[in-house]
Amino acid sequence: MILNPPGLGPGAAHQLPHWPYVQAVDDALTARGIPPGTVRADRTYPQRGDRMYIRLVWYISRTAGVGGLRFHWEEETGWAYAYLGAVPSIATPPRPLAALHRVFAAPDDVAQVAERLVRNWRTPTGEYGAEWERAPHVRATIELFRATLKKPGTLWTGGEST
């Protein structure tokens, strides 16, 4: 389990409104024995749409394939993946994870899809339509985050919606 966002230090998880989703997905991946080698969560900032994102990377040493794997999540589009070469900077174009039908797909579904790709190097079959039960809460917190940043002279302190 990831306790704090990398680089933000103890107690700073509240600075990323989508951090609860990051933790839930990481917990599900760890429970399946496939924790990613890199977890990155942040936002794109206003010049790029101010969207929340997550990147999960499994390097070649953590996969059964001939390279690594990257999962990318954005709050508007959901999950996508790309295969990585032996050098992670070489990657296939990202492809949507069509089996995951929700932007906030259930973490166990994300982990099941990831396991198939990490262990077997195959895209999953079937459909995973469940939305994470805390998705409405995180969406509301993201909106509160944006509203706070738009007010002149205000600073996001990590307040959550109820």
Largest sheet: 5 strands, antiparallel
Structural class: alpha+beta
What share of the residues lie within helices? Answer: 25-40%
Mean pLDDT: 86
Strand order across the biggest sheet?
1-2-3-4-5
| Order of secondary-structure elements | HEEEEEHH
| Gyration radius, in Å | 16 Å
- Total helix count? 3
Q: How many angstroms does the end-to-end distance come to?
A: 24 Å
* Quaternary structure annotation: single chain
Percent strand equals: 15-25%
Shape by Cα distribution: globular
Total strand segments: 5
List segments where confidence is low: pLDDT < 50 over at least 5 consecutive residues: none
Can you offer a commentary on this structure?
The chain has 162 residues and is α+β, with helices and mostly antiparallel strands. It contains three helices and five strands. It has a five-stranded antiparallel sheet, with helices on one face. Helix 1 crosses helix 2. The two termini are 24 Å apart. The relative contact order is 0.15.
Overview features:
about 20% strand, alpha+beta
Question: Which secondary structure elements does this structure contain, and how are they paired or packed?
Answer:
Blueprint: H1 19-31, E1 38-43, E2 52-58, E3 68-74, E4 78-84, E5 95-96, H2 107-120, H3 135-150
Antiparallel strand pairs: 1-2, 2-3, 3-4, 4-5
Kindly summarize this structure in a few lines.
The protein is α+β, with helices and mostly antiparallel strands and 162 residues long.
